[in-house]
Amino acid sequence: MPSPKNNTLTSLLGQVAKHRSEKKPFALFRYPDEAVVKAILQEDGRLHTLADLKRPGFVVSPFGQDRPAFTILPDRTAEATIYKTISRGSTPAAWTETEEEATRYKDLVHKAVKTIRKGILRKVVLSRPLEVPTGKSALEIFEAILASYPSAFCYCWFHPEVGCWLGATPETLVRFSKGAFTTVALAGTMEKEEGKEPAWGLKEKEEQGMVTDYIVEVLSEMGVKTKSSAVETVGAGNLWHLRTTLSGKATAEQLAEVIRALHPTPAVCGIPLQEARNFIEENEGYSRGYYTGYLGELHGDKEGETRLFVNLRCMEFLGDRARIFVGGGITASSDAGKEWDETRAKSQTVLKVL
How confident is the model at residue 153 (pLDDT cuts 50, 70, 90)? Predict the structure, then answer.
């Protein structure tokens, strides 16, 4: 049963805080460049595993098979409109990483480059976690995310059996409505410098091209033709990315197959897909959990646009700590020092709101 839509953000967060204190699942989210913050509130504490995409609610799917894919059911919903956002928390949390971690990650990149040059892989995405202390609650962090990243998909979800995650992701997995879908190939990263446009190098262009070609190929194999836009530069927080938008036609029945074909994309895993996944599982040294999985609202059989997002620029909230996840695409031309710097730059998105 929907709640009134004229909530303030403060009153909406108050409702969600009460719901959270009762250990009931919820999802809070706002679509990119929109003003409405929506809450989906489930009244029981059950974990409703994701059997198909026909059940309405907020779906959360992991990168691998070690965590459950599930849906937070919309027993109640509520909304609030933000008429003006004021950016807060613009200074990243002070955090110094160890030389040991830098060496470990650079050694991992070196290993990946050697494997790629042997012809076993063309690309692999390598990530790492870092834990930092925080004195904020999850809802306080979510409010800071909303103010800091108006052009990202901002979310906070909680389930008593799984945990609490937050993020501000710039990447669409799929957008589907009335038989038409769009997806994006987002790859290549460069830190913003004031007054300077990005000068993309061969490595970033090559990486972005691989992702685009892969998406076109896997969708073509299932009989779905796509059209590709020109490559464009887009901003996400303190970073630049290269993006190609791909569009096509698909039936509602094909949507689940399209999602299975797209997840995980080379932007978060690699090429060839299975070989890259094997390398990640054997060498990253930790479980990604819901990082580089996907999430978003499903409308089931009701009319409505389905918009799912890749879970990037995110954290797992651990009470007095936040576990942040960062990574980057490795190709034959990758430089280990630059790849380390890229993960450091990406960590600022989340550190900024802590």
Answer: very high
